[in-house]
Amino acid sequence: MASSRLGLRLAVCLLNISEARQQDIVERIAKAALCNKAGQKQTQTSVLNIFSDYDYNRSVLTLAAPVETLGDSVVTACTEAYNLIDMEHHDGIHPCLGSVDLVPIYPLSESVSLEECGKVACDIAETLSHDVPGCSIFRFGYADQPLKRNLIQRRKEVNWYKSSNLNVNEIKPDVGAVISPRYGLTGIGASPYVLNCNVTIDTQDLTIGQQIASAIRGANVGGLCGVQAMAFPHEGTVEIACNVESFTDEPSSSLTTERKEYISYFIQGKEYLYFSPRYIERQIKKLATIHGVTTVGTALVGFTPERCKSLAERAIQEGCGEFWKKHKTITM
């Protein structure tokens, strides 16, 4: 991704909050991102997209801005979310630990470094711990210095994948207080862009979904590099929810020998690759066919990194902070 044609050094936050069933609350949080703590309008911030899922009771807000000011917008959005979402009353099928569950910072412009995004993430964590007494935070990726533990590792360490059995007394946050029942635990960090792609299969058999998710998971033999996958019951079907991470070295798996299946972009001159969502969809369709079921839809939660940068430039150039109103849900 080349530098912004507007001369801006852009970054983005895909803010994950534990609310989707009360859209007025979700929109209040989105609108909060458009002002700083003093209530002044952030003219170069745009909320590009809001993706909400009722069954998950989870929304992802795509907040884009110059890297120098993105942290201010994220802090105001998170503060509003902490005020409005009470984890003691949360209900949803997607794992989560916090009212603000995940705050990942990604570079969009090639000139923005991962280290810089890590610093932004650390500053967000420290500011929130001061502004919202009682919130608790774990750091990951380039915000987790010097270890740089990735999100999967940190989530395993805090028992995110088994959040229904969470014992808050066993977890020591990196920043903030002992975990409160209201706020829960928030993950804040920085990494290369992570794409979210959900593929629905036409069955109610969760076991089939779990087998497909296991087969494409990058950590498993024959899986797709950088792909994390989980299966959930969803609106009378099963959804394969995929996090698609970027990687720097071409994998050697027999499934990944064709360069054309990767999409590439650059961060400070270094090439990063990720699997095309359409290729992931085709692989899931093949696996579903083996089980005698079909795919019935694919949703992209937000955008590819290239599309995100392009829309961020457009939104900021137009001065359109509420850009999401033009793009409700993005599907392929």
From TrEMBL:
Protein's UniProt keywords contain Signal: yes
Pfam families reported for this sequence: FTCD_N
Any one Gene Ontology molecular-function term assigned to this protein's record: transferase activity
Keyword Signal: yes
Gene3D superfamilies per UniProt: Formiminotransferase, C-terminal subdomain (3.30.70.670), Formiminotransferase, N-terminal subdomain (3.30.990.10)
Residues annotated as signal peptide: 1-22
Domain Formiminotransferase N-terminal subdomain: 9-192
Keyword entries, A-Z: Signal
Name of the protein: Formiminotransferase N-terminal subdomain domain-containing protein
